[in-house]
Amino acid sequence: MNRSSTAPGGVARIWRGRTSSALANEYTQYLYDHGVKKLESLGARGVQMFREDQADSSFFMVTSFWDSMEAMTRWAGADPTRIRHLEKDPEYLLELPSSVQILSVVSCNWMLADMMRI
Question: I need a surface site. Which of 1, 2, 23, 69 has the fewest CB within 10 A?
């Protein structure tokens, strides 16, 4: 995505991580309390957290939605793909991700809800 462009539906910032099955429930709560809630307080339009359990590990994905790249970079800094690890991520995660994915939001149910209010 061109960092100077603004998508009509905003942008999504997607983080992925993996922890052991033994720590999955504990990390779910930690990630929600210290990650999801923080993104909400920083101005994200919305935040979704996903979890996939496998035999020996659990995968997590957090997607935050922002009105624009500018809104996201106010807290993410000049390089919005740079990871801002939570304090205890090194204790929980099997490997520390090196970057996040940034996508233009083309369609989302909240976009439809906004249009219907007009």
Answer: 2
Nearest to 1 by CA among 72, 76, 62, 69: 69
**C-beta separation of 30 from 89 below 8 A:** no
| Sheet hosting strand 57-66, strand order edge to edge | 46-53, 57-66, 11-20, 101-104
**pTM, two decimal places:** 0.83
Distance CA(47)–CA(13), nearest Å, equals 9
pLDDT, one tens digit per residue, over 33-71 is 999 999 999 989 889 999 999 999 999 999 999 998 888
- Which strand (E) or helix (H) includes residue 110? helix 109-117
Strand segments, DSSP code E, in 5-106 are 11-20, 46-53, 57-66, 101-104
Name residue, tokens 């504990």.
26
